[in-house]
């Protein structure tokens, strides 16, 4: 029982990342009808927003401290970040410590802008072209974005730690009445899961309870009719693209303490996220979220030693295997709607 | 003759001449000169031209004709490589059985994957092939290590059995791949003046096989089978309504293109007998997509051009470093020189993929027909100047009286 619970918890953080990326992919697909292969790159750009902000906050100047010497006998050079000098060591230190969560504020405008520019500048011209062309051009864009990031930040992963307060793990099992230290769970993963839940909830609430969301949902169902009613649906869909980009970017920002960001993290997640979208059902938002968590948890179960000894290698292929089985038995995915991508 | 009309013969002859004279054509600059770094006439690169040409020709039979975009073709190439290396390990160092086996294994593998994946079309097909390829890649890395030797890659060793050959040569080294005794790495060098031309046995094998593959693709393009494949691309629904089942045709196309990929993989292993799992990764599948689109999907010559183009520039661009750039711009004033170097720097050397990505996007946006369409547009531009409204005559026939006068 405790082992099962532990695997479910382990699967949650990866599942949250899948769910967030797949949610954005589905939003773009459902509104604009575009298959966006550059969505993984948006996730990566989000992660590098966090890297940028934490680098920016730790920009420092050097002073020579004559009272101390280093091991060579030279006067010690002390690096002081500008923020600590300006706001005092307490507040400045806290700012640096909390760089990753703070990056959320920084990433939202950046990602929305990136999304707008991408949609207006490139994807707009591909609505009428075949899906293969959309895949190809966004695939090209993903390569370009990833190479730019590689040029700027280098090819190595950049560690970006979580705030001190969340750095350890806590004994989750005790809360539920298990023996101590059976279920140990890092704080940040819990934060990531809660964050993902909030974002997903916010997106659904936005679509469900606001007038804007209602129009968007109507447009997803029948774009032409909504247009005929005199509503500028294109503008709203552009905004949805920006929101989808922001969702992917935020998923990336918060993921940085779990996995140090590198330039190909987007591509790694993209392939899996597409599988998630297809399993969930193309164009179905709840399907994407459910499939994201489902596959994340399945992956973590498959990497248990007991299961690996039973079927060797299953942890490597479980997601693809599930995708193949689902596509062949339920061609529309778990919750796919009729008439989507069936031309 | 051989089922080709005059136009196709010309095309085939041009390709044949280009391929067979490649050591001359690709070596226009004298050795040791400043421009010698742009020469591509050395065996390793020429082999890659031919091998990736074959790979792209095969991919084009599936994507160009039927419109099914596979993102997992590298898996067949990898499987072909592995089976060829196993043939070298177990049977003999002759490349013929190795290449044949790699084609057979790739055909079986693609039959299996195609049978499942072709039940869906569009993006679902792309994702399914991607999933299968990633699965094979992951398995090759982990569980199948006894067969694939995992991360190290499959290599020849001195204690391989090699039933029909020797485990080791007389001087105790691993024997080299050969074609009935003709060593693949043997190179005949010809020096004319300052030029050094290299004629490599391995390259000529690749080139001849590429010509055969090109001829086969040509026949497929012109055959009733090829027309059926085009029908799948243009309107599958209509094809079904006329009472034809598209599935056998698409499956046949998938297996044929899988065999081409296997052939390319087998040749790759014949030139350099080792095989690694990274050949099956989805980035490798993406590369063949780039080649085909860049050259021109659905055309005969396009994929070969695209493969050559990408492999050539990958090789040349990655050689250019800051010193070379400074050399080029040295005639400019210092400040301007540094500025130009820093502008060009991100696009060359290790930044080659950035250039490739930008180029690829530009092609998809402005030239969906690839380099071939670009060439045709230029030709048309010149023709138009010579013979104005020559084309319009066909499209807008003059009004003819309904009743004969």
Question: What does this entry show, briefly?
Answer:
With about 350 residues, chain A is mainly alpha-helical.
Most extensive interface: A-B, 37 and 39 residues
Average pLDDT level of chain A: 84
- Could you state the order of secondary-structure elements of chain B as H and E? HHHHHHHEEEEEHHHHEHHHHHHH
Q: Percent of residues of chain A in helical segments?
A: 55-70%
Number of helices of chain A: 14
Q: Give a quick account of the main beta sheet of chain B: strands, pairing sense, barrel closure.
A: 2 strands, antiparallel
Textual characterization of the structure:
Chain A is mainly α and 343 residues long. Chain A has a single domain (2-57, 108-329), classed as ABC transporter involved in vitamin B12 uptake, BtuC. Chain A contains 14 helices and 4 strands. Chain A has a two-stranded antiparallel sheet. Chain A has a two-stranded antiparallel ribbon with strand order 3-4. In chain A, strand 1 (60-69) and strand 2 (75-81) form a beta hairpin. Chain A starts with a helix and ends in a 14-residue tail after the last helix. Chain B has 405 residues and is mostly helical. Chain B has a domain at 6-25 and 39-280. Chain B is 63% helix and 5% strand. Chain B contains 18 helices and 6 strands. Chain B has helices at residues 6-20, 22-25, 43-66, 74-90, 95-117, 122-141, 145-148, 201-222, 224-234, 236-241, 246-271, 282-295, 302-317, 322-328, 334-344, 352-366, 370-386, 392-395, and strands spanning 154-155, 178-179, 182-183, 187-192, 195-200, 274-275. In chain B, the strands form 3 sheets. In chain B, strands 1-6 form a two-stranded antiparallel ribbon. The radius of gyration of chain B is 24 Å and the shape is globular.
């Amino acid at each position: 029982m405790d082992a099962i619970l532990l695997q479910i918890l382990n699967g949650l953080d990866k599942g949250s990342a899948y769910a967030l990326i797949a949610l954005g992919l589905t939003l773009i697909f459902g509104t604009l009808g575009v298959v966006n292969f550059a969505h993984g790159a948006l996730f990566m750009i989000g992660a590098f927003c966090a890297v940028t902000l934490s680098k920016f906050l730790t920009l420092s100047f050097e002073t020579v401290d004559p009272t101390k010497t280093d091991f060579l006998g030279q006067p010690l050079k002390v690096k002081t970040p500008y923020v600590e000098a300006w706001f005092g060591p307490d507040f400045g230190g806290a700012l640096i410590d909390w760089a990753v969560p703070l990056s959320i504020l920084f990433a939202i405008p950046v990602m929305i802008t990136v999304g707008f520019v991408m949609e207006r500048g490139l994807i707009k011209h591909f609505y009428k072209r075949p899906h293969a062309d959309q895949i190809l051009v966004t695939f090209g864009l993903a390569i370009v974005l990833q190479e730019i990031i590689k040029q700027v930040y280098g090819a190595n992963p950049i560690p970006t730690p979580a705030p001190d307060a969340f750095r350890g793990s806590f004994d989750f099992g005790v809360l539920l009445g298990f023996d101590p230290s059976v279920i140990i769970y890092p704080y940040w993963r819990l934060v990531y899961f809660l964050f993902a839940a909030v974002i997903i909830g916010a997106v659904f609430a936005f679509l469900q309870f606001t007038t804007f969301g209602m129009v968007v949902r109507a447009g997803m169902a029948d774009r032409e009719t909504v247009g005929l009613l005199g509503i500028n649906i294109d503008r709203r869909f552009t905004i949805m693209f920006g929101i989808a980009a922001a969702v992917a970017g935020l998923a990336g920002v918060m993921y940085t303490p779990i996995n140090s960001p590198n330039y190909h993290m987007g591509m790694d997640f993209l392939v899996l996220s597409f599988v998630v979208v297809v399993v969930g059902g193309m164009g179905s938002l709840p399907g994407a979220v459910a499939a994201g968590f489902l596959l994340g948890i399945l992956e973590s179960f498959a990497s248990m030693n007991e299961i690996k000894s039973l079927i060797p290698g299953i942890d490597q292929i479980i997601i693809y295997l599930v995708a193949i089985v689902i596509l062949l038995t339920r061609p529309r995915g778990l919750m796919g709607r009729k008439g989507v991508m069936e031309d | 003759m051989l089922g080709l009309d005059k136009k196709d013969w010309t095309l085939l002859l041009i390709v044949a001449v280009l391929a067979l004279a490649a050591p001359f054509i690709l070596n226009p600059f004298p050795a040791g000169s400043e421009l010698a770094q742009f020469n591509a006439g050395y065996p390793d690169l020429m082999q890659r031209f031919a091998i990736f040409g074959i790979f792209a020709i095969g991919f084009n039979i599936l994507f160009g004709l039927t419109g099914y975009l596979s993102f997992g073709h590298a898996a067949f190439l990898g499987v072909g490589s592995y089976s060829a290396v196993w043939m070298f390990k177990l049977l003999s160092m002759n490349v013929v059985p190795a290449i044949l086996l790699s084609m057979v294994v790739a055909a079986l593998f693609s039959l299996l994957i195609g049978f499942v994946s072709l039940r869906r079309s569009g993006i679902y097909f792309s994702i399914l092939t991607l999933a299968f390829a990633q699965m094979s890649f992951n398995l090759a890395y982990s569980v199948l290590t006894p067969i694939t030797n995992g991360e190290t890659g499959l290599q020849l060793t001195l204690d391989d059995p090699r039933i029909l050959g020797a485990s080791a040569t007389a001087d105790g080294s691993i024997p080299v791949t050969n074609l009935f005794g003709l060593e693949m790495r043997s190179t005949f060098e010809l020096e004319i003046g300052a030029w050094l031309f290299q004629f490599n046995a391995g390259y000529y094998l690749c080139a001849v096989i590429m010509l055969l593959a090109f001829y086969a693709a040509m026949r497929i393009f012109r055959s009733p089978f090829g027309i059926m494949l085009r029908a799948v691309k243009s309107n599958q629904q209509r094809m079904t309504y006329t009472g034809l089942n598209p599935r056998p045709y698409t499956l046949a196309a998938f297996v044929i293109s899988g065999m081409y990929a296997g052939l390319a993989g087998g040749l790759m292993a014949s030139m350099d007998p080792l095989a690694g799992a990274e050949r099956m990764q989805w980035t490798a599948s993406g590369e063949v997509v780039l080649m085909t689109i860049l050259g021109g999907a659905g055309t005969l010559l396009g994929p070969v051009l695209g493969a050559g183009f990408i492999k050539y520039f990958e090789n040349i661009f990655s050689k250019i470093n800051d010193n070379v750039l400074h050399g080029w711009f040295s005639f400019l004033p210092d400040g301007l020189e540094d500025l130009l170097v820093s502008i060009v720097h991100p696009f060359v050397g290790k930044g080659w993929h950035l250039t490739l990505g930008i180029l690829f996007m530009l092609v998809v946006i402005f030239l969906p027909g690839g380099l071939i369409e670009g060439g045709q547009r230029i030709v048309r531009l010149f023709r138009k100047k010579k013979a104005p409204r020559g084309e319009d005559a066909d499209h807008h026939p003059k009004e003819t009286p309904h009743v004969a006068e």
